[in-house]
Structures are given as C-alpha cells and as structure tokens.
Amino acid sequence: MPANHNRPTPHAIRKPRPRTPFQPDMDITNPRILKLKGILFLLLGTLGAVILLIRSFDFETCALLAITIWSFCRFYYFAFYVLHEYADPQFKYAGLWDLMLYLMGWKKHRPRRTEHV
User: Fold this and answer.
1) In the chain, what is the greatest distance between 2 CA atoms, to the nearest angstrom?
2) How far apart are CA 90 and CA 6, in angstroms?
3) pTM over 0.90
4) CA atoms of 94 and 97, how far apart (whole Å)
5) Residue 65 CB contacts under 8 Å (≥ 6 apart), including other chains
6) Which contiguous run of DSSP H or E holds residue 54?
7) How many CB atoms are closer than 10 A to CB 64?
8) What whole-number distance in Å separates Cα of residue 36 and Cα of residue 34?
9) Average pLDDT for residues 84-112, to the nearest whole number?
10) At 82, which helix (H) or strand (E)?
11) Residue 45 to residues 40, 48, 54, 74, 77, Cα–Cα distance (Å)
C-alpha cells in the first residue's frame, strides 16, 4: 500500500496551545522581556563579581576576574558572530551545546529556522 503523503500528521491535527511569554520551548521575541533578561544577567554577573571581590580583595583576584570576564566576552563574540559570519553563514546555532556538536563535527547540516505562521 503506497504511503499517503497528503494525510495530516498528528502534529497538524492537534489544536495549538496558547503561547505564554515564559514557555521554555519558544524564542523570546518580546522586547521588554529581552531587555529584562539582559538586565538580570548584568545584575547576576555584577553580584557575583562584588561578592568575590568582597571575600578576596587583592590585585591578583581583580586581575584574574578581569581576564576571565574579558575572555568569556571574546569567546561569546567568537562563538556567535565570527563563526556564523565567516566560517559557516548557513549554520544557525541554538546555543553552546549546538556549537560544541558542530565544532566536534557531529552536526554538519541543520536547516535554517523558519518563522511559524
């Protein structure tokens, strides 16, 4: 019996759930939530640095903290800008895990994300 390619998939039959801004399986597109997320990351990083410096305030700790922050910023730039713009513009990373699999050669091709209509 030939396969019926016109038959709807179970996903197409299901009634879509209403989306909420905090659903973990969706991309955040609300500018206010994106800004809040950025501010929370900034506050968390600042709090961690302040606590570290209060506990151990000396030149070595300050220098190592500055080098660590600078290095992670450069890695982020490398991972999500340099690789995408210069190494493989067709590959879209979903995060650091996808990047690691890609760099290890386990993930060669991944279709570009399409917007849900």
Assistant:
1) 76
2) 30
3) no
4) 8
5) 49, 52, 53
6) helix 31-55
7) 12
8) 5
9) 76
10) none
11) 9, 5, 14, 16, 17
Amino acid at 77: Y
Q: pLDDT tens for residues 11-62? A: 545 555 565 555 555 678 888 998 999 999 999 999 999 999 999 999 999 9
- Tokens representing 80 are 């999500």
Digit-coded pLDDT (tens) for 53-92:
999 999 999 999 999 999 999 998 988 888 888 888 887 7
Q: Is the dihedral of CA 64, 69, 72, 73 positive or negative?
A: negative
| Residue 63 host element (H or E) | helix 59-77
Q: Which residues of 33-48 are buried (b: 16+ CB within 10 A; e: fewer)?
A: eeeeeeeeeeeeeeee
